[in-house]
Amino acid sequence: MSKLITFVKDSYMEMTTKVSWPKFSELQSSSILVLVASLIFALVIGIMDFGFENAMKSFYNAFK
Q: Which residues form a coiled coil (predicted)?
């Protein structure tokens, strides 16, 4: 049990003193970048899915 307590204390000490945390403005700009990139990626995948669906419908209707 003492090893666990020592681990938690050391972890807390390292997280508060040795880790450099980004500023709120940096986090905000990174979050916006991730949001925009995710939306663009979702749009591209949606367009590809729509095109593939229509291509497959045309292909299958050609053999009916």
A: none
